[in-house]
Structures are given as structure tokens and as C-alpha cells.
Amino acid sequence: MQVDVVVIGAGAVGENVAERTARGGLKTVLIEKALVGGECSYWACMPSKALLRPGTAVNAARSIDGARQAVTGSLDVDAVLQRRDGFTSHWDDKSQVEWVHGAGIELLRGAARLTGERMVELATEDGTTTSIEAGHAVVVATGSVPTIPPIQGLDSVDFWGTREATASQEIPRSLLVLGGGVSGAELAQAYARLGAAVTLVVRGDLLASYPEPARRLVEAGLREDGIDVRLHTTTQKAAQDDSGIHLTLTPTNNDGGAAPSIVSGTKLLVSTGRHPALTDLGFEDVGIVPEDLETNSSGQVAGVEGGWLYAVGDAVGKALLTHQGKYEARAAGEAIAARAAGDLDGGTPEPWSRFAATADEAAVPSVVFTDPEVAMVGLTLERAREGGANAKGVELPIAVAGSALHADGYDGWAQLVVDEDRQVILGATFAGPDVSELLHAATIAVVGQVPLDRLWHAVPAYPTISEVWLRLLEEYGL
After folding, report:
1. Shared-domain flag, residues 267 and 159
2. What is the span of the domain harbouring residue 180?
3. Where a domain ends, among 322, 339, 360?
4. Annotated binding site, which residues?
5. Cβ atoms < 10 Å from Cβ of 58
6. Residue 61 falls within a domain, yes or no?
7. Which member of 112, 266, 328, 370 lies 3.0 to 4.6 Å from 8 by CB, making a disulfide possible if both were Cys?
8. Containing H/E element for 116?
């Protein structure tokens, strides 16, 4: 079988690559062994946010006098789960398959692996194999898989990963959560608000890659929901018996020789990170060590003669976020189509062209959809200084007319990281209820490298939470 482009993996990232190459006139094959739409559609972004949103909406109403009196009941668990099921299309990919066909992309089902230069072998469930030759490019968009920690006894415990947690049809009486990253924090709060007694065990600090004040606001929000938050705590052992699942815990830095403690629950969620899904893809057959995979800004894999092999999204491991993966995919798809048409020379495209995914270096936006939320883009103050920038942090509580109207006792925090030499913003973080809607303005400021004296003329509407932008600039001295 001969085509122009083969895309391995039909998640959101693979779909975006294939759509761009097909739109560019290239015969494109998209290969998927599970559900078309991938992790985000069925087990990550969409179902987790669907589980979180009802609790956030109720809490928002309770935060306003006059509205809180109208909230007389608790969440309808069955309705929440049914709404979640709707967002996952009940784990049926029919509509996504229809979209693929409508975009002029050929969909093949099965497991794919590289077998040589521009060659892919497809193995289907019925045992047949097909060799596919790609005239222009093969793109690996296989996403990521959970990283399971080496905890004694864990392999004998029937635990959840994030897939099982986002797809569960019941709420356990009690839930132990291992991992204080984004997924661990979000799912701990979702399940607590749906009625589970939750214990969150974190080896280090909660949301460790975010600024300290933002972390503490989220921690306070989790504790307010009754979550038993155990920070700087190591899980030494896991065990399961008829009464439930039991974790043996010690302080991470146990210099004082503190005695172990035991926490128990009916279910255990392990959410301790993810890593690129690159096994059994045949990279070795084309001279690539999967652990050493590197790509340029248009997704071309380094060390492959002829530049025909691409990798995008979580498979590359740069920023494990759906929106960043889709961004990389758009750049790669555009570059493949342009190279096939002879409109783009080989090598790395110019920065900030549509063929280059350069925002991964210093302008990644991310949101933690806990309540309160955390929204961040670009560099933290520490990372900016480590990179050699003459950086200054400007930070304030979010206390403006818009926030006071938004919720009684609104508690939030904002920070800008300013390059003192160039007078532009390198990063921004907001923490508080509904701050995710502030993020795109910050992303534009960072990507556009908008000078502060020009940003001063971007007048925030009154009374909105965005007025914090004005207060931050005033705090800086403008």
C-alpha cells in the first residue's frame, strides 16, 4: 500500500496532523488501535473536567450571599456521571470516525510499527499484516502512558489509573490518591465533592512546578473540601485485603526516624506522572533509541536521513498538554505539506512561522482546574533567572472590584515575571476562582513580547477580575 503520509495514533494530536496534511492535498492514512479521539476525549481532559465542573458551579453559588441560600441540596451523583458520559460520547468513537472520513483521511485500525525507511507495518486484530509505504512522511503521535512508582506490594493491589478514575460509574466510599500533580489534585477534589472520603499522598509538594502562593491556595481549597492532604510523604508499601487498600507512609525526609503511619481506603488512584508511549513502535529498526528521541521545531526526528520521520505531542515529551500537542501537530502537518509541495526547504523553519512549534520553549499555557484554579503561561521567576534573564517578579493578591463582585471573600493571587532589560513579560501566573479566563491575554502578551509601556494602554474593563493587570503594572511602577 502506498500513500503520502502515515500518522500513527488518532488522538487529538494525530487528528490535527492528518487534517493538515490531507488539506494540503496529501493522501493521508491515520492508524489507531483503540478509540479515535484518544486519551483527551475519553479518559483525560473532557471527562475529568466534566467531573469537576458541577462541584465548582455549586461552590461558586455558595460563595455569594443571596445565591447560597438557594443551594439546599448536594450534587446529584448520577446526573454528574451521566453528563460526564455524554462528554465522552459513552466511549463510542463513531462521531470522531465520521469526522476523519469527512476530512478526507483514510482510517485504519490496528497496531503500527516502523519497519524501515518510510515503511510501516500494520497488524490488525484478525492477525493480518499490511505494509504501508509513505512517500513523504511518517508521523508518530502515540501520546503518553502512566508512570507507575516502584512501591513495594503495589503490583498486587487492584488500583486505578487516571483512566479508571475518569470513567468510573460509581463513587467509592473512600479514595486514596497517590500523586500531587495536576491530575491527582483535580481528581482528588472531584471525588471529594462527589462524596468520597479522600486522602491525597504527595511525595514532595502539591503542584510542585507552580509558584508557592498558588500551591498554597489550592491546598487550602482541597482541605476545605475535607481532603486529608499528606505532603512530603513517601509511600513505603501498599497492601490489599478484604477490608480495603492500605498504604504505609513515612515522611519523605525522615531524618528524625518517625514511625510509619497507615492510611486505608476502598479504592486507590495512582496518578504519579506520565511518559511518552514509544515502546513496540520499531524505532530501533530505523536507528533511533526511543529514550533519546529529539525533534526540531517542525517535528522532524533528529538523526533520520531524509527527514521523513516526525513525532509530535506527548510522544516527544516536551509539554504533556493536549493544546500544546495539537499546536505541534498543526506546525508539523503544515511543514510536511509545504515540503511535499517544494515550498519549504529542509531543516528547521524560521521561528514563529506556521511551520515551527516554538511556543514550547517559553510560552506554554497550562491550567489546573481545581477550585481555586491555577493558570500559568511562560516562565516562572526561577526558570527565567536560571535561563540568564534579568527577571523581576511582580505579585499581588487579586483584590479588585471585579473579584469582590465575583465571590464574597474572593481569595486569589497574581504574578508577572518581567524581563527588566527588554521590558517584556516572560511569564504570568494567576490563582483563584475562574482565573483560567485570564490566561489567554497573558499568553498573547508573552508570545507577542508586548512592551510594558504598550501594555499599559490595554485598558481592562471595569469591574472585571482582569483589572488585576492594571494593579500589577502599577505595582511594577508604571
Report:
1. yes
2. 154-272
3. 360
4. 49, 142-144, 179-186, 273, 314
5. 17
6. no
7. 112
8. strand 111-116
Q: Indicate if 290 and 424 belong to the same structural domain.
A: no
CATH at 107:
3.50.50.60
Q: Are 465 and 449 in contact (CB under 8 A)?
A: no
Q: Are residues 263 and 286 in the same domain?
A: no
Buried b (16+ CB within 10 A) or exposed e, 367-405: bbbbbbbbbbbbbbbebbbeeebebebbebbbbbebbee
Binding-site entries for NAD(+): 179-186, 273
- How far is the C-alpha of 137 from the C-alpha of 309, rounded, in Å? 6
Amino acid 47 reads: P
Q: What pTM was computed for the model?
A: 0.95
Q: Does residue 463 share a domain with residue 398? A: yes
Show Cβ contacts of residue 461 under 8 Å, excluding neighbours closer than 6 positions.
467
Same domain, 215 and 130: no
Listed residues 272, 295, 317: the one ending a domain: 272
Counting the structural domains of the chain, the total is 3
The full DSSP string for 14-75 is HHHHHHHHHHTT--EEEEESS-TBHHHHHTSHHHHHHHHHHHHHHHHHHTSTTTGGG--S--
327: in domain: yes
- State the Cα–Cα distance between residues 72 and 50, nearest whole angstrom: 22
Could you say which DSSP state residue 156 is in?
G
Task: Note whether 8 and 140 are same-domain residues.
Answer: yes
219 occurs within a structural domain: yes
CB 152 within 8 A of CB 235: no
Instruction: Tell me, yes or no, whether 260 and 403 share the same domain.
Output: no
Binding site for FAD: which residues? 49, 142-144, 314
User: Per-residue pLDDT for the chain (478 aa), expressed as one digit of tens each?
Assistant: 999 999 999 999 999 999 999 999 999 999 999 999 999 999 999 999 999 999 999 999 999 999 999 999 999 999 999 999 999 999 999 999 999 999 999 999 999 999 999 999 999 999 999 999 999 999 999 999 999 999 999 999 999 999 999 999 999 999 999 999 999 999 999 999 999 999 999 999 999 999 999 999 999 999 999 999 999 999 999 999 999 999 999 999 877 678 899 999 999 999 999 999 999 999 999 999 999 999 999 999 999 999 999 999 999 999 999 999 999 999 999 999 999 999 887 667 888 899 999 998 899 999 999 999 999 999 999 999 999 999 999 999 999 999 999 999 999 999 999 999 999 999 999 999 999 999 999 999 999 999 999 999 999 999 999 999 999 999 999 8
Residue-wise DSSP of 344-399:
S-SSPPPTTSTT---HHHH--EEEE-SSSEEEEEE--HHHHHHTT--EEEEEEE--
